[in-house]
């Protein structure tokens, strides 16, 4: 009988404690729900701020770095697509002509539902992002065919240029090829087919010879090419007719059908004359044209390439300096590419794009610009 009385008493205490804890547990659950909603709203705003800054950065220095109209308009347009009230958005352009950047700051009120019972009705929620427009300073995947800065300066956007000369048109023993991953026909062939594994950089890249290399693509690091010292690299001597023909054939035959002409890969020009690379033909990002890093036979946008722009060709093995990089579209080789005859021709392209690359100081004369988040 005494045991039964204690059991009833314990059950009563449990019921009483439970009754007292229900409001506390309910309040904690409500607070967790409101705080979770606040955190979700902030993440959503941060994603929007990132997108708005990147959209605006695409049009920085268009047509000049002092004219911010196009950049602001692009950022505002993207904000509206993301459902951001223009009144909650502040856009700031900075950096001038050497480090152009645009910042997007969003601030708005977040309403709470449950913790109003303790007098907290709302709180400000915000996000900020800054994107810069930079020149392509270097990276992996560079194809070892070169063009001189003088040739680039004298070529119209979309014009044909020769990037690998044959024995009849070489430059005093230098045929326009560069050593990146190493020397010899086998290494040259691999680099020409798939792009170099090592990182190469231009003289305009501020971190060309410094920084750590995580070692996993697409992480970007400083120059690691065994045949280069900073932006100074060794040329590849010899006509290399067979490897050149094999590399060009590989790239032509393993390009997807939707990117197999220049017009398909670059379907439109902007008012400032730059071309627009079709998103599905970008070999550096995920998508139909995305190419895997390193040796692979997968079909992708292999005719869109980045090559070094050098100061000029010396005699034989005289090193060359990478001034910047050029975006090109592979048109093929002339003739049958046999014997001593094997010129490789590409179309020079001035374009903005998305790429995994080492950021170089903004250079208005460079043919490749891309945008990246810096804050």
Please tell me about this protein's structure.
This protein is of the alpha+beta class and 375 residues long. The protein has six helices and 16 strands. Helix 1 (2-58) packs antiparallel against helix 2 and helix 4 packs parallel to helix 5 (241-253).
SSE order and pairing:
Layout: H1 2-58, H2 69-81, E1 89-94, E2 101-111, E3 122-139, E4 147-148, H3 149-153, E5 160-164, H4 185-194, E6 200-201, E7 228-229, E8 232-233, H5 241-253, H6 262-265, E9 268-269, E10 275-276, E11 304-310, E12 320-333, E13 344-349, E14 351-352, E15 358-360, E16 368-373
**N-end to C-end Cα span:** 73 Å
Structural class: alpha+beta
**Residue fraction in strands:** 15-25%
The radius of gyration over CA amounts to 29 Å
How many β-strand runs? 16
Mean pLDDT: 81
Shape annotation = elongated
Query: Low-confidence spans: pLDDT under 50, at least 5 residues?
Result: 214-219
Biggest sheet, open or closed, and with what strands and sense?
A: 9 strands, mixed
- What's the SSE pattern? HHEEEEHEHEEEHHEEEEEEEE
Oligomer: single chain
| Total DSSP helices | 6
Give short descriptive properties of this protein.
375 residues; alpha+beta; 9-stranded mixed beta sheet; 6 helices; 16 strands; 24% strand
Characterize this entry briefly.
The protein has about 375 residues and is of the alpha+beta class. The chain has helices spanning about 1-60, 70-80, 150-155, 185-195, 240-255, 260-265; strands at about 90-95, 100-110, 120-140, 145-150, 160-165, 200, 230, 230-235, 270, 275, 305-310, 320-335, 345-350, 350, 360, 370-375.
């Amino acid at each position: 009988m005494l045991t039964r009385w204690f059991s009833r008493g314990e059950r009563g205490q449990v019921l009483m404690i439970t009754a007292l804890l229900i409001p506390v547990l309910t309040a904690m659950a409500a607070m967790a729900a409101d705080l979770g909603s606040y955190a979700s709203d902030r993440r959503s705003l941060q994603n929007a701020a990132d997108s708005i800054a990147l959209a605006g950065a695409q049009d920085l220095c268009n047509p000049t770095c002092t004219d911010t109209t196009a950049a602001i308009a692009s950022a505002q347009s993207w904000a509206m697509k993301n459902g951001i009230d223009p009144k909650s958005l502040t856009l700031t352009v900075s950096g001038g002509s050497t480090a152009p950047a645009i910042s997007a700051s969003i601030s708005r009120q977040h309403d709470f539902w449950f913790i109003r019972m303790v007098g907290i009705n709302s709180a400000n929620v915000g996000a900020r992002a800054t994107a810069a427009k930079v020149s392509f300073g270097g990276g992996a995947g560079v194809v070892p065919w070169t063009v001189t800065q003088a040739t680039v300066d004298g070529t119209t956007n979309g014009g044909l240029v020769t990037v690998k000369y044959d024995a009849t048109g070489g430059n005093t023993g230098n045929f326009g090829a560069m050593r990146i991953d190493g020397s010899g026909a086998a290494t040259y062939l691999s680099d020409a087919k798939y792009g170099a594994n090592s990182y190469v950089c231009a003289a305009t890249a501020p971190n060309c010879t410094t920084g750590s290399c995580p070692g996993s693509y697409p992480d970007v690091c400083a120059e690691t090419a065994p045949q280069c010292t900073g932006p100074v690299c060794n040329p590849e001597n010899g006509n290399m007719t067979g490897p050149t023909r094999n590399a060009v054939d590989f790239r032509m035959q393993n390009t997807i059908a939707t990117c197999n002409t220049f017009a398909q890969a670059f379907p439109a020009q902007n008012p400032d004359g730059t071309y627009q690379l079709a998103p599905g033909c970008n070999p550096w990002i995920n998508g139909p044209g995305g190419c895997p890093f390193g040796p692979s036979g997968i079909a992708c946008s292999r005719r869109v390439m980045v090559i070094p722009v050098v100061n000029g060709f010396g005699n034989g093995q005289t090193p060359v300096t990478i001034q910047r990089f050029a975006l090109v579209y592979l048109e093929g080789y002339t003739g049958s590419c046999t014997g001593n005859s094997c010129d490789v021709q590409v179309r020079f392209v001035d374009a903005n794009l998305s790429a995994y690359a080492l950021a170089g100081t903004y250079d208005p004369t460079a043919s490749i610009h891309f945008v990246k988040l810096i804050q």
